[in-house]
């Protein structure tokens, strides 16, 4: 019996396969192909593997290992993928933070995530990052990603060998942390495992027709899964990831032409800029669209027209379930049918499944579900009390068995590609001594879907200029979260429970355009 157990244990170890093991195989299988392009830098798979080994060795020399955390405070870069893979190689967790946040928000992330190493960028975001470093309490090693000299990223890597012993990493360990929007006042870091990323990568590759010949332009923010899932899928299948620090329509056009881009993330305002710049066709975009005016563009996820996702581009998902869990291309109506990686049910507040056609909370279980929120024991317990992950989203099961998304259980504003939660902004407004009450709503906008509007009740005898209120939010929140409109009122409508009646506020002050599918 003991011999049999020993034999089984050997196979258990042999079956271990983490995210960085994919890179090890690419080094063997694709030695001549490009893995990443970033400005003038171009790396083959063996070159990327060597750099990841150097970084993994450097992290270990700094005392990091299984369960340790690595934080990225900067814009898009090939180093985001490099850092994720190095963290994967040592069993650590990597988090690319939202660089558009204010210094107060970034300070919260640093103190909450307690990383062993922070990689930070000086260009464009340096002053905000330095402000966050002054505000935070957590002490750790800081390495500047865009500094070439001593204490810079490249010099630090150069001091470590490009070889290391192969290590076996449990694929159930978390490897990626993505901070969700602040639906309850503060953001939470959703922990995603090696296996979750690998399994979902297979689904995304099929949905978006990703292969070894794919070239993905990382033009959306890498702190969102909206972009990152395609980055990871392209990586998994040996395609080429092309990086640009931030959205720049002209630079994107040049990269599409020079690299033969086949996949990209292009938001509505950016596609309009691209069409205007390239109206005469000076840039060759034929690898992505049939003409310079990009007539095929329908949503930010740009891929070959033959891709299954393009047949019916409706989806339901969230960061906590590694992006999309219900997809139109899998069949059915509404948002489509669930992925084979998950089970989905619609339940009432007591956790009982409701009949088809009745709205209830969407619950998910399966391989796509996160490992939980980092350092949020109470929230994790509340989300999993009945053995399923409770999404806090409302949906319905249709007669044919497919699922439709009704709306967030907690009201969410959608501005461009950003999710904005009123609770966070309302909490910020209440910091002002003049403010007695505030209700934040979304108002329709033809370009951004919605804008943020604050309905504010001042304390008796107080005055406050709209500009001062907006500036207060700008200093403490990411710029896209600040109110674009402010209306001062004598009182806010309340329900019988004494709470603000958000539906009534929407009706009275122009709210609408909230996200929904199906």
Description:
It contains 16 helices and 25 strands. With 518 residues, the chain is an alpha/beta fold. The strands form 7 sheets. The protein has a 6-stranded mixed β-sheet with strand order 2-1-10-9-11-12, with helices on both faces. A hairpin with a 2-residue loop joins strand 1 and strand 2. The longest helix is centred in the N-terminal third of the chain and has 17 residues. The model has no long low-confidence stretch (mean pLDDT 93).
Task: Please give a handful of descriptors for the protein shown.
globular, alpha/beta, six-stranded mixed sheet, 25 strands, four-stranded parallel sheet
Could you give a short description of this structure?
The protein has 518 residues and is α/β, with parallel strands linked by helices. The protein has 16 helices and 25 strands.
Structural class: alpha/beta
Beta-strand content estimate: 15-25%
Share of helix among residues? 25-40%
Name the CATH homologous superfamily of the largest domain: ANL, N-terminal domain
Instruction: Report, as a whole number of angstroms, the end-to-end distance.
Output: 55 Å
How many β-strand runs? Answer: 25
Which CATH top level class of the largest domain fits?
A: Alpha Beta
Radius of gyration: 24 Å
């Amino acid at each position: 019996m003991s011999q049999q157990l020993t034999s089984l244990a050997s196979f258990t170890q042999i079956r271990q396969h983490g995210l960085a093991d994919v890179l090890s195989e690419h080094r063997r299988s694709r030695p001549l192909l490009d893995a990443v392009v970033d400005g003038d830098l171009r790396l083959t798979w063996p070159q990327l593997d060597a750099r990841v080994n150097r970084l993994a060795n450097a992290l270990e020399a700094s005392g990091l290992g299984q369960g340790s955390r690595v934080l990225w405070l900067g814009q898009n870069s090939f180093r985001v993928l490099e850092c994720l893979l190095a963290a994967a190689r040592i069993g650590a967790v990597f988090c690319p933070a939202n660089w558009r946040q204010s210094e107060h928000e970034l300070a919260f992330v640093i103190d909450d995530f307690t990383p062993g190493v922070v990689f930070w960028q000086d260009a464009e975001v340096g002053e905000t990052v330095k402000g966050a470093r002054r505000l935070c309490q957590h002490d750790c090693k800081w390495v500047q990603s865009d500094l070439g000299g001593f204490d810079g990223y490249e010099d630090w890597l150069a001091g470590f060998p490009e070889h290391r012993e192969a290590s076996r990493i449990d694929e159930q360990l978390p490897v990626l942390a993505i901070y969700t929007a602040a639906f309850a006042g503060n953001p939470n870091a959703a922990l995603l495992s090696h296996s979750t990323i690998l399994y979902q990568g297979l689904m995304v590759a099929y949905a978006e027709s990703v292969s070894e010949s794919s070239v993905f332009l990382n033009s959306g923010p890498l702190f969102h899964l909206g972009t990152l899932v395609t980055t990871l899928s392209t990586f998994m299948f040996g395609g080429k990831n092309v990086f640009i620090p931030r959205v720049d329509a002209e630079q994107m056009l040049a990269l599409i032409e020079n690299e033969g881009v086949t996949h990209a993330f292009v938001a509505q305002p950016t596609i309009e800029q691209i069409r205007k710049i390239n109206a005469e066709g000076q840039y060759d975009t034929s690898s992505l669209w049939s003409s310079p005016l990009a007539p095929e563009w329908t949503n930010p996820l740009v891929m070959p027209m033959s891709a299954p996702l393009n047949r019916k581009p409706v989806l339901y998902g969230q960061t906590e379930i590694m992006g999309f869990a219900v997809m139109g291309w899998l069949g059915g109506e509404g948002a489509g049918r669930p992925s084979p990686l998950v089970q989905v049910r619609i339940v009432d507040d007591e956790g009982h499944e409701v009949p088809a056609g009745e709205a209830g909370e969407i619950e998910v279980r399966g391989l796509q579900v996160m490992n939980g929120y980092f350092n949020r024991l109470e929230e994790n317990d509340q989300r999993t009390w009945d053995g399923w992950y409770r999404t806090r989203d409302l949906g319905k099961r249709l007669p044919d068995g497919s699922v439709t998304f009704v709306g967030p259980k907690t009201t969410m504003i959608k501005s461009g590609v950003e999710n904005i939660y009123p609770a966070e902004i309302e909490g910020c407004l209440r910091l002002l001594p003049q403010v007695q009450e505030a209700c934040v709503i979304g108002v329709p906008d033809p370009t951004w879907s919605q804008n943020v509007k604050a309905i504010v009740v001042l304390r008796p005898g107080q005055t406050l200029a709209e500009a001062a209120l907006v500036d207060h939010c700008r200093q403490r929140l990411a710029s896209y979260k600040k109110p674009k409109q402010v209306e001062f009122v004598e009182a806010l409508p309340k329900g019988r429970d004494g709470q603000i009646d958000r539906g009534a506020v929407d009706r009275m002050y122009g709210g609408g355009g909230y996200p929904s599918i199906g």
